[in-house]
Amino acid sequence: MATNDNLIELSSQEEFDKLISANQNSIILLDFWASFAPACAQMNDVFAELSMKHRSLKFVKVEAEKFPDISLSLDIAAVPVFIVLKNGKLAARVDGANAPKLTETVEKYAKIAGASSSFVGKIGLTDASSAKTVSNKMDLNTRLKTLLNSSTVIVFIKGTPSHPRCGFSRQIVEILNENKVKFNSFNILADEDVRQGLKTYSNWPTYPQLYINGELVGGLDIVKELVSSGEFHKMIPKEKNLNERLKELTTQSNLIIFIKGNPTAPRCGFSKQMVSILDEKKLKYDYFDILEDEEVRQGLKEFVNWPTYPMLFHKGELLGGLDIVKELNQSGELDKMIESN
Q: Over 80: is that where the pLDDT of 4 sits?
């Protein structure tokens, strides 16, 4: 069987960045897939066949859960999804297992690529702020207060600590790490409600924003001044032990889910199903992204003696994981258990 050198299976963020940089004058097709979605297997085969036939285009397979930042930036909330990047912009999108539509789209851009071999522009990802906002899960001010008190130290940044999306966010993360501060973060690009609402709530117009014990410390310049003066270390409270943190997290809201990702962009199929159940019942709830805090991710499993995610808590008590919640929902017991929410 002939090897297919026109189909790349992405292995790292660095490889993706280099790929984009090296193919600035090419049309690139991205196949977002996941092992938990059966429809992806067949569509991956279709994608592979198309890559062998249309060598004027570049074909890249992206495992959605393995590369959450790339997925989030292109608003990938379910798989399979196929993205066409042309001249630095999102040119086309095919959602779902629609082989005829994918074939039609690929053939269309193959003709464009064949007609002109020179495209001017820099290939880039759509801004992550295009991610859909979480629609009124709870009163915004209540939600913001909950977020601010969800961790002793929390920083609101663009991106994540491992992949900041702006220089100011990168600098504040570096300062916190250099000063050995244990902190949580919130990616404002993933939630437009929080991004805009927090500026009004705290009367602070820019990001990043750093909070300690629920109180605003300031932005990057303020934090730099505090570090230089030596005041910053005095402001950092002693760490709570993990069990105290977990108790606070599980009781911070009447209803809270611990999931991979956020309700708008769940990063695993089980988390997505849990969110769907709660949304269909129009329940108000908060969430915690376990991918942002490995200590919580591992510690909570021992704290409640439950080995998997997602988890749903009501007033500090574990209701269960996805299977349990499904059973409770089907039997009508879920409504009874949270009717006081």
A: no
pTM: 0.40
**Phi, then psi, of 197 in degrees rounded to 5:** -65, -35
SS (H, E, C) the chain: CCCCCCEEECCCHHHHHHHHHHCCCCCEEEEEECCCCHHHHHHHHHHHHHHHHCCCCEEEEEECCCCHHHHHHCCCCCCCEEEEEECCEEEEEEECCCHHHHHHHHHHHHHHHHHCCCCCCCCCCCCHHHCCCCCCCCCHHHHHHHHHCCCCEEEEECECCCCECCHHHHHHHHHHHHCCCCCEEEEHHHCHHHHHHHHHHCCCCCCCEEEECCEEEECHHHHHHHHHHCHHHHHCCCCCCHHHHHHHHHHCCCEEEEECECCCCECCHHHHHHHHHHHHCCCCCEEEEHHHCHHHHHHHHHHCCCCCCCEEEECCEEEECHHHHHHHHHHCHHHHHCCCC
Residue showing tokens 């006081």: 340
pLDDT tens-digit profile of 45-98?
889 888 888 888 999 999 988 888 888 888 887 889 999 988 657 888 998 888
Whether residue 117 has pLDDT greater than 70: no
Cα–chain center distance at 152: 22
Q: Hey, what are 194's tokens?
A: 């929080």
State pLDDT tens for residues 159-185: 888 888 888 999 999 999 998 888 888
Residues 258-299 pLDDT 10s: 999 888 888 888 999 999 999 999 888 889 989 888 889 999
3's CB contacts (< 8 A; 6+ apart) are: none
